[in-house]
């Protein structure tokens, strides 16, 4: 495993396991399979509707809490100072935890951004209270981040954004890095069906004796992105973890960067 250091010194595993769209009936097996494969970083959210099942799976696993890195997110309907604090407590209850490692604003409120700023104040309160080890945002633009910077006592430590070879987000990623924000990428292989058939990626995969998915995930890590692919296929879960025994060359990274189409594939 490789780790990235957040601005406050907290270490975050660069490869995690996503819990989006895992059916409640499949959560226990999925989480245990991921743990058995070596994952210790899990990306959760209230809106995924399965945090109670995820929390029970953590409890049943017997893995020590300090060995896990667990993220959750506050949903749009819960934005605002008081509502965010209440939503956080519900997430802790559902996950059966005393604290989170990372708590994010899931989306900026486009209609009333002040609500998102009030939500950020709530995250700062939770951080000051030690209920969360680090705080950040998701899907925030450079303009929205600057608005947070203008009022924040604690700057966001993470920005989680859609990121795959057809949407490389290089300008936003550079802005985040310049401001001490770690980039996280969701949909890291862009749902696979298009990207995994790409000729450039397949050519690189053959050179390294890896699958196209492993090459894309390695590209994410080599370019500084924390990622959390999700799969219900245990063989894919294990394969996704097997990306730390090779590196891509600068030329290969440049070739994958060149596939950018600013194409939104998250659906």
Automatic annotation (TrEMBL):
Entry keyword NADP: yes
Stored Gene3D superfamilies: NADP-dependent oxidoreductase domain
Keywords, comma-separated and alphabetical: NADP, Oxidoreductase
One term of GO molecular function: oxidoreductase activity, acting on the CH-OH group of donors, NAD or NADP as acceptor
One of the Pfam families matching this protein, by short name: Aldo_ket_red
InterPro entries reported for this sequence: AKR, Aldo/ket_reductase_CS, NAD(P)_OxRdtase_dom_sf, NADP_OxRdtase_dom
Every NADP-dependent oxidoreductase domain range: 15-260
Binding residues annotated for substrate, in chain numbering: 106
SUPFAM superfamilies documented for this protein: NAD(P)-linked oxidoreductase (SSF51430)
CDD domains for the chain: AKR_AKR1-5-like
Keyword NADP among record annotations: yes
Active site per database record: 48
Site for Lowers pKa of active site Tyr, residues: 73
Transmembrane segments: none
Family statement: Belongs to the aldo/keto reductase family.
Name of the featured protein: Aldo keto reductase
Organism: Companilactobacillus kimchiensis
